[in-house]
Amino acid sequence: MSVQTILVIALLTFGVAVELACCVGVLVMEDALDKLHYIGPAAIFGPLAIALAIVIREGLSQAGIKSLLTAGLLVTVNPVLTHATGRALYIRRRDHLEPEPQVTIFLLVGGGAPLVVATRDPLRQAILASFFGILLGILFFVLQAPDVALSEIVIGAVALPLMILLSLAKIRGGER
After folding, report:
1. The predicted structure's pLDDT at residue 7
2. Which of 24, 46, 47, 44 shows the shortest CA–CA distance to 35?
3. Domain that holds residue 21
4. Which of 8, 65, 104, 118 is most buried when burial is the number of CB atoms within 10 A of its CB?
């Protein structure tokens, strides 16, 4: 057996073991919030180990790239969905949601989205998209998702508008 084969078997064994352990944890735990703790590793460590095993075995072929993209999607989406599920359970147990800041920020986000879409000038649209990213960040913060809020502010309010502005500068610089 080659080192590559041993590594692939080890990664697959680890990935399957993580998935099985997480399934057992979900079955054994009684409280829904406790069950959420077992969903995280099942959507992060298991898929990453299996994706790495596929990449080691197949290389960066179509199968390898698809496995990396799938694992990346699971790693990216899982914390958001887990937090949203936990938050929904928290609200259900408390039997209410504090309405004051949520209503205001929901109205601002709901009004800001059409403004970004309706703007035709790319420069103004980039600036509005930045403000909209800040609004979404505030929304996530108010909904008690500070990790998602920080990600949204960095990506939606800084990185995306910056990329748009740099692209506009490059395009407009080439026209002169």
Report:
1. 92
2. 24
3. 3-94
4. 8
